[in-house]
Amino acid sequence: MKVLDRKIFVIILTIQMNCFSLFTLYFLLSTQFMSVDEIKPGMTGYGLSTFKGTKIDTFQVEIIDIIHNQFPKIDMILARISGKVVDTAGVISGMSGSPIYIYDQTTDNRQAKLIGALALGYTIFAKEHLTGITPIHEMLNPPSTGYAPPGEFSPIKIPMNCPGLPDEMFKELETQFPCFNLLKGQGSAKIIDDSTLPEPGSPLGIVLVQGDVTWAGIGTCTYKEGNKVWGFGHPFATLGKTELPMTAGYVYSVVPSSFHSYKMSTPTRIIGTIKNDNRTGISGVIGEIPDLIEFNMKIKSALNEEKFHYQLIKEKIFLPLLFSSLTFYSIYTGFKGTGDLTAEVDLEIKGSPVSDLSESERNFHFKNFYTGTPKKITASISKVFNSIQNNPFQRINIEEISLNLVTNDTIKLAKIEELWADQKEVIPNDTLNLLISLSTYREGSVRKQIPILIPSWAKKGELWIKVENGATDRNKTQHQLRTIDELTKWLAQAPKNNELVITLSQKGHSGWISGEKFQALPPSKASFIKGEEKNEIYKLRIPTEWVITKEKSIKLEVK
Q1: Among 152, 181, 200, which residue terminates a domain?
Q2: What is the pLDDT, as a whole number, of residue 357?
Q3: 418 and 400 belong to one structural domain
Q4: What are phi and psi of 548, to 5 degrees?
Q5: N or C end of the chain: which has fewer CB within 10 A?
């Protein structure tokens, strides 16, 4: 059957069965594309990619065969590439999306038609010139199913430059971003202010972070129609519908390697939005600029004060790791990268209206006191950030993050060693003196005397007094939160790590109703809600200059 006859037959069948989109009909009729059915082994053509600056170069392509259903519902065009650059470097990280054009054997003038994007590399031998091409019609009309697992042919990794990132976070990013070829500082840390727009064969990138550092993954543009662009030929992170900053790019050089060749490149300014990230590539719109999160960080020490400014993407999957990485990076470069430190932390997060949230329910403020390694302190701060972003109550559209640290390079740590009282028997409204012995890190023992007023509502019987650290008390109450408003108040008011929390308890009925604890409930209600327990009747918080650990308890008698 001739090619034209076959097209007419497919169109008639499509109309009758109503199983294809109108876009597919457009594709079948288009003269600029070549379908998989038209491609035969031995056909030749060329590809477009950028190997230096913004100049688009060519390389040669020879079709080997078609592998149908290489991935579920996705065909792969197997080809061999050659040319001045690829003969030395092979399949290069950053070539993902390079458009491949094959000469149409049915035309007299051998018109070259777009068949798809160079997208897959032969993982066993990185410099082998075999490559997989994603068909163009599968990029323009991607399948709705999930990610195709890597095999012998896997997606060519997207190079992403991470200048200055410490080894600890670099390894974590590699684990979380397997689709990226992370580079330690090759290239510029700044976005180049260039007005170049993506064209088939030119750099096409996605910015994750910009500001004092720039982290961006840069591949290649496959196809452009008006202000719409397609690229990569494989997923960025299989996000589906998304809003990521789109950028063009500038290539400094190709770094050849027998293991993994890559383009040393940097992004230009943000020019649009990537709106889809699917199994067969990415697509977006030039001119629509997405909103970014403003992240300002200040680190103050005895010697100096450093300020950092970043802009982060709003993608929920990436945001926690980006926040954590940049926090660690800032501490590492702004204060110290190794050893221990102590930091007073002030974290503020502001959000824009989502649903019917009030201003107080979308703005969060948290202060605390930490000691340990930079990585340990970063992990603690990130845990708080995650509890806000991933809270189970309401979606928060984060707009601005402010993080201030007051630091010193000593460990401020104290352990509760002993607890005494100057009386064994007390009466309501009596004053009791507590003696607390703290064992500090390299500062010896410290004894604190704290007067406690026995509440007038204390009843006769046993009285327990517990002294514990603020973190332990805070963790006990977190699971009791029921609303976004309770989370906001808890972050602002919960005990700090450097506080001694003194709790007086007696046996009695208590229970939780709508997130509030009720004391001394009527027996009929108490039996329904909760049985008899040690009931808190008084709590006192005492700030110290140390992060407190351990706990101690004593028992007295109320007469």
Answers
A1: 152
A2: 60
A3: no
A4: -95, 140
A5: N
* Residue 84: predicted pLDDT: 92
Same domain, 208 and 315: no
Q: Which amino acid is at 310?
A: Y
Residue 514 inside a domain? The answer is yes
Indicate if 226 and 300 belong to the same structural domain: no
The domain that contains 266 carries what CATH number?
2.40.10
DSSP of 13-71:
HHHHHT-S-HHHHHHHH-SSB--GGG--TT-EEEEEEEEEBTEEEEEEEEEEEEEEEEE
Give the rounded percent of residues in the chain with a pLDDT score beyond 90.
Answer: 61
What is the chain's mean pLDDT, rounded?
85
Q: 495: which DSSP letter? A: P
How far is it, in rounded angstroms, from Cα 370 to Cα 353?
Answer: 32
Please give the pLDDT value at position 114: 97
Q: Which of the listed residues 248, 266, 286 is the one where a domain comes to its end?
A: 286
Are 472 and 543 in contact, with CB atoms under 8 Å apart?
Answer: no
Sign of CA dihedral 62, 68, 69, 73: positive
Q: What is the pLDDT of residue 513?
A: 39
Token output for 104: 């149409």
Any idea what DSSP says for residue 148? P
List own/partner pairs for 169-175 with CB under 8 A and 24 or more apart.
169/324, 169/325, 169/328, 169/329, 172/321, 172/324, 172/325, 173/321, 173/325
Number of domains in the chain: 4
Range of the domain at 317: 296-408
The SS3 assignment for 487 reads helix
Separate counts of helices (H) and strands (E) for the chain: 10, 31
* pLDDT of 555 strictly over 90: yes
State whether 9 and 127 are in the same domain: yes
Do residues 201 and 85 lie in contact, with contact meaning Cβ atoms separated by under 8 Å? Answer: no
* 291 within domain boundaries: no
